[in-house]
Amino acid sequence: MNLKRFGVPAAIAVTAALALSSCASNEGGAAAPEESASTLAGNLVGAGASSQDAAQQSWIAGFQTANPDVTIDYDPSGSGAGRETFLSGASDFAGSDRAFKDEELAAGGFQKCAPDSTIVELPLYISPIAVIFNLEGVDSLDLDAATVAGIFAGKITKWNDPAIAATNPDATLPDLAITPVHRSDDSGTTENFTEYLGAAAADVWTWEADGVWPFEGGEAAQGTSGLVDAVTNGNGTIGYADASRAGDLGTVAIKVGDEFVPYSPEAAAAIVDASPFAEGRAEGDLAIEIDRTSEEAGVYPIVLVSYLIACGEYAESDNVELVKSYLSYLASPEGQETAATDAGSAPISDTLREKVTAAIDSIK
What is the pLDDT of residues 133-150, one digit of tens each? Predict the structure, then answer.
């Protein structure tokens, strides 16, 4: 990963450490020592990526337990809605499965932020996007990018199509129609998925990457939960979702180089560390350009890098300490392990954590 953005790592906020020690001391039922009691108080409002929902619930529970006078509300309304909510000033932070685009940043208008403030974008939730399906008698499939693109483009319409059979000689594939399911809302998961299809199978997938599904066809479902439910309740259905929500559905191993790589937190983390930061961004804006066509061993290219987005400088200082403390907890090894355990995400590397911590420390 290109790590030119910051020179000197900053320490994670003291509040996070105090919070964790307070939590540990309470596990045995004894009262927390007076010196470790949290002095944080207030309410934070966040909204955005539904992919983060399971992680956010765990993060919020841990942070509020350690800081009993703090309330954090997170509305998993979807990435597009979360960015709009943050732009309008109705939330203190946003969750988004993509970073703001250059033209969106140029337009500005972030109502919570001080005039001319930049924003901080922190890649704190990293997860593979699983290609999930419901096909009786089949638990897993090996597919290359062109075949996945052909299915979602409506060009491969039967499960026993030769393109699927060629890479799955031992699978019993029925003469059954394929029903592709996509998100109906503006979704960062959709944008990441279509970005992969366009990069890895450009001859088949001719649409630009976008959070809105680019054409009519297939079945549409609202949010991560809606899509997973549609695939689960269908027959011959296939979709894409944050891997933490794959459950008992069939999943696809993706061809990378000469091997088929199943999704895993480790494979997701590997592709992130092999990818550069976006050029031309402000200090603290850690947008990552995922290398979707990498052929390195063990990487899984359909990965979602979901960001926590805050102001570089807030117009009002009331919640600045609380924002920084919460984000510091999310970035800490403990916060990342909590998300990995409860949501199946990939913990960020120590090197990336240094950059994230420095960005959080810069918030005013």
Answer: 999 999 999 999 999 999
